[in-house]
Every structure is written in C-alpha cells, then in structure tokens.
Write a structure and sequence with these properties.
Number of strands: 13
Radius of gyration: 19 Å
Strand order of the largest sheet: 2-1-3-10-4
Strand content: 15-25%
Order of helices and strands: EHEHHEEEEHEHEHEEHHEEEH
Low-confidence stretches: 50-55
Mean pLDDT: 89
Structural class: alpha/beta
Length: about 325
C-alpha cells in the first residue's frame, strides 16, 4: 500500500488547483506516498447564479464530499470558509494547516487605496459580508461608494477593473498569495475595517472518518493554533444560524509577546448589506485548550450579538 497513490479531490479552478497542489506536496513529504490530483466539477463552479441564491459557498463542497463518500478519492482539500458549519459524521476534518493571511484586499484602478477611491466608486464583490462592512465603513467615514454584486474567478474579477467596468474589486489575500498574484493588490484592508469570513485564509483537509491511518498521517499537517481559532469563528457563525453567504465576519487573533501565546481575542460582526446597521462585539480570554472550549467561546459571543439584535440584520435566517 505504501506505493499506492493517494487520490486528492479538488475543484478545477486555478486557485483550488494551486492550494491542492501545495497540500499534495506536503502530504507526499509526511507519508512518502505519491499523490495524484482528481479534478471534480462542483455545482458552484458551473452555475452562473448568485451564490446566495444557490445555497452559499457550500455548493463548492458537496461534490467533493460525495466523491469522498463514494470512495472515488481518498481525501479532499477545501477552502475552510466554504465549509458548512455542520460536520458530517462519516467524514473527518483531519487537518487544518497553518493559516495564510486572513485579510481582504482591494485591487483598484490607478493603484488606488480604498479610502482614495473617487466619489461614487463602483466596488465589485459577491459577498454580502464584504458589502455590509464596506458600506458601513463608508457611511461612518463620509465616503460615497456603490457595491456591485459580481461572480467569477480571480481573472474575471480583476478583469472588471482592467476593462473599466468597475473601479475596484475585493478579494481574499490568501487566494492571491496562493496563485502568486499578491503584487496586484493596491490596498490591504485592515481587519478593523473589514472582518474576514470565518475561517478565511485557512484550508481544510477532509477524509473518511473510518480511515484511521490516513487521519493520523494527514494530522501531521494540522496547526493547533489555527484549528482553535477557526473553530471559535465557525462556532460563532453556527450559533448565529447564518449560512456561509450571510453577512457575518469573524476573526480569532492569538495575542502574546514573541513566541508565547497568552490569550485569544474573538471578534464578530453582522450587518445589513447597505451598511446602515451593524452589531460588532469582541471577547478576549485564555486560549481555548479543547475543541469544546473553542466552541463555547464562539457560542458565547454569538449570544451577546443576538441579544443586541444581530438576528434581525441577517435577512432570511438560514434553515
């Protein structure tokens, strides 16, 4: 079995192939086994419909999970922010490697920064979360912007700026880093301006829950600090009963001096997409020592946000 290739299921997009290729290299190193990429087309890749309408980013995950359950692939790589918060019992989240930069970025014409965009600037994004926070920031700082819903891969989105259809687009720093295009960024958005999606910048490596040997091997790639942070963020999202396409931002920061991590700060935000109303709260405490502690931290902050009216800002509640 040692020489039998492990089959890694991946979406076909340039970004998915890049991040799956990086994981494949790491798995080859820790297992000594060859890894082959198996390209799988998901409904989210072929549909031109608005993501929020077709079930949020979870539509990118279903086909990969189906292939895992049918035994067509041995493990799969997802962008963690695409994973629904409920984990199927027959699949294991074997590893969450060290997180990339979680921030959102702007790619704008004329190398402009967000706050230097002209009045009435058209900013493209397919994310209600980004719309809510950009519009909220603009309202509170006297900026005049218009957020425009868009879809498509990185080339398509940046193309809207290059051909003059939009003044700027918002993307994830991690994705541009992974495909070697971070130099096209004109502005990194501070997490004080726009909180990222829960789990943004992190990858999830998933396999069958009954394959103990593979779970142990993939576990070599797990980063415990990243896992505890994204667990708290996703717990907040789940407790708000919000789907992946809801306007919820969350980030858990590990705080400390030098190499010693002392505390974790969890921040959450939810708002109407026009930015007129937001609820943003944070909590700081000891770094959770167990999965359950991380879950509890997210639930507690969500409860405070719900007490301040967060549910009414999310439009239709996810079923």
């Amino acid at each position: 079995m040692k020489d039998k290739a492990l089959r890694l299921g991946t979406r076909r997009s340039k970004l998915a192939m890049a991040q799956s290729g990086q994981v494949a290299d790491a798995v080859r190193r820790v297992t000594g086994r060859p890894v082959e990429l198996v390209e799988i087309t998901t409904y989210g890749d072929v549909s031109r419909e608005n993501l929020a309408q077709i079930g949020g980013t979870g539509v990118f995950v279903t086909a990969l999970r189906d292939a895992l359950l049918r035994g067509e692939v041995d493990f799969a790589v997802h962008s963690l922010k695409d994973l629904p918060t409920g984990q199927p019992e027959d699949l294991a989240l074997a590893a969450i490697p060290e997180r990339e930069d979680p921030r959102d970025v702007i790619v704008a014409r004329d190398a402009l920064k967000f706050t230097d965009l002209p009045r009435g600037a058209r900013i493209g994004t397919g994310s209600p979360r980004r719309m809510a926070q950009l519009n909220g920031y603009a309202r509170s700082h006297g900026l005049d912007i218009e957020t425009v819903p868009i879809r498509g891969n990185v080339d398509t989105r940046i193309g809207f700026v290059r051909d003059g259809a939009l003044d700027a687009v918002v993307l994830a720093a991690a994705g541009l880093n992974r495909i070697g295009r971070i130099d096209e960024v004109t502005d990194f958005l501070s997490v004080d301006t726009v909180l990222p999606a829960p789990g943004q910048g992190a990858l999830a490596i998933e396999c069958s829950a009954d394959n103990a040997d593979l779970i142990a091997a993939l576990g070599e790639l797990d980063d415990p600090f990243t896992r505890v942070a994204v667990t708290a963020e996703r717990s907040l999202l789940a407790a708000l009963e919000a789907g992946c396409s809801a306007p919820v931002g969350a980030l858990a920061d590990l705080l400390g001096d030098g190499q010693i991590v002392k505390e974790m700060r969890l921040r959450g935000v939810v708002g109407t997409t026009d930015g007129s109303r937001t609820v943003q709260l944070s909590t700081t405490g000891p770094v959770p020592e167990t999965h359950d502690h991380a879950l509890a931290l997210g639930r507690e902050l969500a409860a405070e946000m719900l007490a301040q009216g967060a549910a009414g800002l999310m439009g239709e509640r996810a079923q």
